[in-house]
Specification:
about 70% helix, four-stranded antiparallel sheet, 4 strands, Bacterial polysaccharide co-polymerase-like, alpha+beta, single chain, about 400 residues, 3 domains
Length: about 400
């Protein structure tokens, strides 16, 4: 029998049993529709990243080595600048698929509960199954896609993949700018502590000796005592003139004597400090001035050091920011508007087509089986098999 005649016979058989085939197709379509509706929706969010620049690539080479990825990729990431760029571009995907990144994503979104597992190992496998991370060999563009039953969570997971890639690179960055920034930061803390100690010592000294500014206080005291001495000389001259004119018993003479005594007492008070004085005496100022100048010099030195280190620290932070391995996002992750799975229409159509094919095939095989002779080897084999199966229960019962 030729192929054309066989196909014609199958076509005639399908037309003859078209009602049976149609009934089977309708039942299959109904069952497939129910099953397809029971399958939960999944949404896919995608982001694309540009390959890093040469500076970023060289820095990420060290990150890949810290994560233990360099050995898997041949161990040639730091051989040369171009080798670093090429090697790091191929290490970005393994970094994204690393256990460090996966565990942070699992903890952040509580994916063990979402995937219904107690163990991180199973959660990582499920996350890897729902994630697709690839890189184009020619352009170096990295594509990150995540499927999830919630559209917002799918976009959030993709965004966290990118954030974690940046954070892991920052945490493991071993560049010279990073080392310099860390060193200057430690020196800056020490300078700040030294400045606080020097300022505290100067404040305590000034408070205990009432020496707010020895230089200005000395100038004020010299000017004050000069004024008092001038007033004292004038009062003494006036007293001598009054004594010659009126004698010692005159009231004006006594008043002048009292004024001279008062001025003389004030002049004497500038010479040395006693417990009743508010400010240090004039004789104490040189000694206090030396100690005050030393403490003041320490404060100024520490202020200069702190200011210089602060400027260097800001410059180091800028340099570190320039060299920080930041991934450039070409297409950010968006919240998908439509489901990506399941394709219910396709599933139902495939089920209907397969049911029609299998039904026609069954009818064709049944027709062939019926047309066979009773002594055909296949029918003989089937009869013997049925007889053997029917004897088994009888044997076991006896």
């Amino acid at each position: 029998m030729t192929n054309d005649s066989r196909l014609a016979r199958i076509w005639l058989l399908a037309l003859e049993h078209r009602k049976c085939i149609l009934r089977t197709a309708i039942i299959t379509a109904a069952l497939a529709t129910i099953i397809a509706l029971l399958i939960p929706n999944e949404y896919e969010s995608t982001a694309r990243l540009l390959p890093p620049s040469s500076t970023t690539s060289a820095l990420l080479a060290g990150v890949a080595a810290r994560l233990g990825i360099g050995a898997e990729l041949g161990g040639g990431l730091a051989e040369s600048a171009m080798g670093a760029i090429k090697g790091v571009n191929s290490t970005l995907v393994p970094i994204l698929e690393s256990r460090t990144v996966q565990d942070r994503i699992i903890d952040h979104f509580d994916l063990r509960r979402v995937y219904r597992t107690r163990y991180y190992l199973n959660a990582r496998k499920a996350l890897a199954k729902h994630s697709s991370i690839s890189q184009d060999r020619q352009t170096g563009v990295i594509t990150i896609s995540v499927q999830d039953r919630e559209a917002t969570r799918a976009a959030a997971i993709v965004k966290m993949y990118i954030d974690e890639l940046n954070r892991v690179a920052s945490e493991l960055d071993t560049s010279d700018a990073h080392k310099e920034r860390v060193f200057i930061e430690s020196q800056l803390k020490g300078a700040e502590e030294a400045l606080d100690q020097a300022s505290a010592a100067l404040g305590q000294f000034s408070s205990s000796n009432l020496a707010m500014d020895v230089k200005e206080q000395g100038k004020a005291m010299v000017e004050g005592i000069a004024t008092l001495e001038g007033q004292l000389i004038g009062a003494q001259s006036e007293l001598r003139g009054l004594q010659q004119i009126y004698g010692d018993e005159n009231s004006r003479v006594r008043s002048a004597q009292a004024r001279v005594a008062t001025l003389q007492s004030k002049v004497n008070q500038f010479g040395a400090r006693d417990d009743k004085q508010v400010f240090p005496g004039l004789r104490q100022l040189p000694e206090l001035g030396v100690r005050y100048a030393e403490l003041y010099r320490r404060v100024k030195v520490q202020e200069s050091v702190f200011e210089l280190l602060s400027q260097e620290y800001e410059v180091a932070k800028i340099e570190e920011a320039k060299q920080m391995p930041t991934i450039r996002v070409l297409d950010p992750a968006d919240v998908p508007e439509k489901k990506s799975f399941p394709p219910r229409t396709i599933l139902v159509l495939c089920a209907v087509v397969l049911s029609v094919i299998f039904t026609v095939l069954y009818l064709h095989l049944s027709l062939i089986w019926t047309a066979m002779d009773a002594d055909h080897p296949w029918k003989s084999l089937l009869r013997k098999t049925r007889s053997a199966i029917s004897r088994v229960p009888e044997t076991s019962a006896s």
